[in-house]
Amino acid sequence: MTLIEALTNKNKMFLAGKWVSRDKKIEVLDPQDHSLIATVPAANEKDVLHTIEEAKKGAKIAADMPTHERIAILNRAADWVYEHKEKYAMTIAREGSKTIKEARKEVVRCIETLRISAEEARRINGETISFDQMLGSEDRMGYYYRFPVGIIVAITPFNDPLNLVAHKVGPAIASGNAIIVKPAPATPLSALLLAEAFEKAGLPPKVLSVITGYPSDMGESLITHPAIRMISFTGGLATGQAIMQKAGLKKMSMELGSNSPVIVLEDADLEEAVESTVSGAFWAAGQNCLGVQRVYVQEGIYRDFIGKFVNRTQQYRVGNKLSEETDMGPMISEKEAKRVESWVNEAVEKGAKLLCGGKRQGSFYYPTVLENVPADCKLATEEVFGPVVTIHGVPDLDTAIFLSNNVDFGLQAGIFTRDLDKALGAVRKLDVGGVMVNDSSDYRIDAMPFGGVKGSGLGREGIKFALQEMTEPKVVCFKVSGKR
């Protein structure tokens, strides 16, 4: 029996260490053929309030857990995922949009995320403070250390249903917090399987919950309850803004997507730039916050780049996501595919030139490339979150940087050049959280600080940096009697 079949039989969510069922269910459908994979409980507001009360106890348990126990639990959870890695990959591929090859890579990253969390748990350090730097404080000495914030709510999206959950759960446990995960209704199974890994690893009950359901059924307590001390949200800008307006006085970590640019200069390795940007544009059917959406190419190589880019895009194999031969599967739903279709149609109607793609079949939207996209189109200014890329000719680097910055997003950018001065100049001037030199915007490792500026969010993920967000410094000062 596969893990998906087991979940189909269980029909349960993980509340404070217990597997709980409810009469009202959510159907988890495969977006490729709309077949039923499993059903999970549709939680209500009473479930939310109960989970928060249990998490209060869990926060005390987690804070008292010795560091070596946190390390051991995180490593055992990573071991469990590794031992069942193909089943985890199949779950990701079935409930979401990723091909089986893409899903396997996500499982590998999840294991790495958990192991890095275990390593960073031992490095939550403070510092001594020289209180005698101030006149009159010669008889004082002290330090600060970091303590957990308490209860964290993690709201996660569909596009990385396992590793993005691990990026919130791993550092939360490493830093001694309790955490309540609310996964996307479309892809709850991977989060539940991660909860199972922590249960098998011996995580004390009440420290972790994975509550499944629709926000309309659950009320707003997960956001507004005063016991919640931090919200870690990954999703769209409008939803992130709504959460911040309602949440009250809480810590916030917000990763809100982007409209990522890549710059290709005349001295770039053209083959490398094409291969990297095509992959960056169409990974996970373009449903990737780091996905390449805009490419600015210096005019001297523009036509050559366009030809190679379109040719490589047309080689992309779209189809059954469980096939080893497939490069790209469906979008998460037909509704989303229709939205992307309407954005492309809008651009074409306003004068954009469709170079390839622009075709939809159900929830599949084929890799699409456009040029001459007007500045007032959605594709130019908003996050498409689909397999669509726009390419623009530019006279020089300064123009490319200006256009790259001319949106209300700033997560990551890429630049291809052999000129170190130009690369460093772009690093300084691009208004983003990360610049990938001779890589597309979608390159990331799980140990680096990850986040953006402007509409792309607040705070940073990446284990070491998430740990800082999930802890607070406490100052300790001793007034020592007598002279030294």
Largest sheet: 7 strands, mixed
Low-confidence stretches: none
**Helix content estimate:** 25-40%
Molecular shape: globular
CATH topology of the largest domain: Aldehyde Dehydrogenase, Chain A, domain 1
CATH second-level architecture of the largest domain: 3-Layer(aba) Sandwich
The tally of structural domains comes to 2
Write down the overall mean pLDDT: 95
- How many strands appear in the DSSP assignment? 22
> How many DSSP H or I helices?
17
What name goes with the CATH superfamily of the largest domain? Answer: Aldehyde Dehydrogenase, Chain A, domain 1
Pfam families: Aldedh
InterPro entries: Ald_DH/histidinol_DH (IPR016161), Ald_DH_C (IPR016163), Ald_DH_N (IPR016162), Aldehyde_DH_dom (IPR015590), ALDH-related_metabolic_enz (IPR051020)
Domain Aldehyde dehydrogenase: 19-476
Family: Belongs to the aldehyde dehydrogenase family.
Structure keywords:
seven-stranded mixed beta sheet; Aldehyde Dehydrogenase, Chain A, domain 1; 17 helices; globular; Ald_DH/histidinol_DH; six-stranded mixed beta sheet; alpha/beta; ALDH-related_metabolic_enz; 484 residues; Aldehyde dehydrogenase family protein; Ald_DH_N; 22 strands; Aldehyde Dehydrogenase, Chain A, domain 2; single chain; oxidoreductase
Structure report:
The protein has 484 residues and is of the alpha/beta class. The chain folds into two domains: 3-257 and 458-473, Aldehyde Dehydrogenase, Chain A, domain 1, CATH 3.40.605.10; 260-448, 3-Layer(aba) Sandwich (Aldehyde Dehydrogenase, Chain A, domain 2). It has 17 helices and 22 strands. The strands form six sheets. Strands 14-17-18-13-12-19-20 form a seven-stranded mixed sheet, with helices on both faces. It has a six-stranded mixed sheet with strand order 9-8-7-10-11-21, sandwiched between helices. The chain is globular, with a radius of gyration of 24 Å. The N and C termini lie far apart (71 Å). The model has no long low-confidence stretch (mean pLDDT 95).
